[in-house]
UniProtKB/TrEMBL annotation:
The keyword Disulfide bond does not apply. The active site is at 170 (for beta-ketoacyl synthase activity). GO terms for molecular function: 3-oxoacyl-[acyl-carrier-protein] synthase activity. InterPro entries: 3-oxoacyl-ACP_synth-2, Beta-ketoacyl_synthase, Ketoacyl_synth_AS, Ketoacyl_synth_C, Ketoacyl_synth_N, PKS_Beta-ketoAc_synthase_dom, Thiolase-like. The keyword Transferase applies. This is 3-oxoacyl-[acyl-carrier-protein] synthase 2. PROSITE patterns: KS3_1 (PS00606), KS3_2 (PS52004). Keywords: Acyltransferase, Fatty acid biosynthesis, Fatty acid metabolism, Lipid biosynthesis, Lipid metabolism, Transferase. SMART domains: PKS_KS. Residues 9-417 form the Ketosynthase family 3 (KS3) domain. Pathway: Lipid metabolism; fatty acid biosynthesis. One of its GO terms (biological process) is fatty acid biosynthetic process. Involved in the type II fatty acid elongation cycle. Catalyzes the elongation of a wide range of acyl-ACP by the addition of two carbons from malonyl-ACP to an acyl acceptor. Can efficiently catalyze the conversion of palmitoleoyl-ACP (cis-hexadec-9-enoyl-ACP) to cis-vaccenoyl-ACP (cis-octadec-11-enoyl-ACP), an essential step in the thermal regulation of fatty acid composition.
């Protein structure tokens, strides 16, 4: 949908960030948690998980939606939508962007989610079975459907521009950022609220991923359960939260004196067309997403300083992504820093691309690379610089962020230091 002439594309910058994560409920807390290597994973408290094979997750700590929402409004939102609205309030305040009648039709919203309102669906199913269909809530459907996070954010801020929801599993948040970028590039919007949100730490959510052998069962040692690229990994750990970015057309941001965290310069997506949950052997299609993203950005592989990896801590993803990075970047792959912030937050599914986009922008802004914690013994073939255990001060001019989802979705975003 972007303007096909690269010379006439609008430049797009990041002017606001919001984050609600297992390692911090504000942007400042999240960043401090990342650079200090804080671990947000522990025993599940949202429900009694005693009968579950997996009993650990990256839950939010002491999060209160009523700090952002009226009680009545909060009760009419599933948790995934609550998190998106609350993170957006942080991001809009951070950006200083005013949305009013003068610009509302040029401000849009794209927020991705992989699963949507699973919590309300489970609760209402129980009511249906025990009390009958007449007792189901009239708010069940609007609370459950995945697009409601984007819809409720638009209602909250009066944003009447382009609005949609990306639902591409664990690539959903990254797709949302990329599509928002395209809309501004092509002059279909002046500013976009974008990112991802997820709240699937529920009995069915945990049971379903455990049934397909995707999650860690290191229940007796949750702090060391998520260990991307390490030989001891046994699956991902689910997290919850939301990451939101405010993207703006450069001239608009400059005219209002906005601070600029970074510029977004590239976006690409490909499909494995291979398997419901597996990746193409050798990561050839993930590599293609990275290469196409660099081409879209007009950057050579040698320009890349840092990659925020998908890095799920699963037996399949980590060596496959490593191979893909090598294929896309060649020898330069060994000269850059690669880290998985999921080692601290767990995997936010559709929200992952949102909080990892935030992390990538902040790595550029602060010239500071978050670590991969719990990486003690890299698997054979996982031989890149994964920034083990501690963060690293380094100049970060260009960062890539990878997100891959069930169904074969591959997404790469390119962020650049603004000049």
């Amino acid at each position: 949908m972007a303007n096909s002439n690269p010379q006439s594309r609008k430049r797009v910058v990041i002017t606001g960030l919001g984050a609600i994560t297992p390692i911090g409920n504000t942007l400042a807390e999240y960043w401090e948690g990342l650079v200090s290597g804080r671990n947000g994973i522990g025993a599940i408290t949202h429900f009694d998980a005693a009968k579950h094979d997996c009993r650990i997750a990256g839950e939010l700590k002491n999060f209160d939606p009523l700090l952002y929402l009226e009680k009545k409004a909060a009760k009419r939102m599933d948790r995934f939508a609550q998190l998106a609205v609350c993170a957006t309030k942080q991001a809009v305040a951070d950006s200083g962007l005013t949305i009013d009648s003068s610009n509302a039709d040029r401000v849009g919203v794209i927020i991705g989610t992989g699963i949507g309102g699973l919590k309300i669906l489970e609760e209402q199913q129980e009511i249906y079975l025990t009390k009958g269909p007449s007792r189901c809530s009239p708010f069940m459907i609007p609370m459950m459907i995945g697009n409601m996070a984007a819809g409720l954010v638009a209602i909250e801020f009066g944003a009447k521009g382009p609005n949609c929801c990306t639902v591409t599993a664990c690539a959903a948040g990254a797709n949302a950022i990329g599509e928002a970028f395209r809309l501004i590039q092509g002059d279909y919007a002046t500013a976009m609220i974008c990112g991802g949100t997820e709240a699937a730490i529920t009995p069915l959510g945990i049971a379903g991923f455990a049934a397909c052998k995707a999650v860690s069962t290191r229940n007796d040692d949750p702090l060391h359960a998520c260990r991307p690229f390490d030989t001891g990994r046994d699956g991902f750990v689910m997290g919850e939260g939301s990451g939101i970015l405010i993207l703006e057309e450069l001239e608009h941001a400059q005219n209002r004196g906005a601070k600029i965290y970074a510029e977004i310069v590239g976006y690409a997506m490909t499909c494995d067309a291979y398997h419901m949950t597996g990746q193409t052997p050798g990561g050839i299609d993930a590599a293609r997403a990275m290469s196409l993203c660099l081409k879209d950005a007009g950057l050579a592989p040698e320009a890349v300083s840092y990659i925020n990896a998908h890095g799920t801590s699963t037996p399949i993803n980590d060596p496959t992504e490593t191979a893909a990075i090598k294929k896309a970047l060649g020898d330069h792959a060994y000269k850059i820093a690669v880290s998985s912030t999921k080692s601290m937050t767990g995997h936010l599914l559709g929200g992952a691309g949102g909080i990892e986009g935030v992390a990538s922008a902040l790595a550029i802004h602060h010239d500071l690379i978050p670590p991969t914690i719990n990486l003690d013994t890299p698997e054979e073939g996982c031989d890149l610089d994964y920034v083990p255990h501690v963060s690293r001060a380094a100049k970060v001019d260009v960062a890539l962020s990878n997100s891959f989802g069930f169904g074969g979705h591959n997404v790469t975003l390119a962020f650049k230091k603004f000049s």
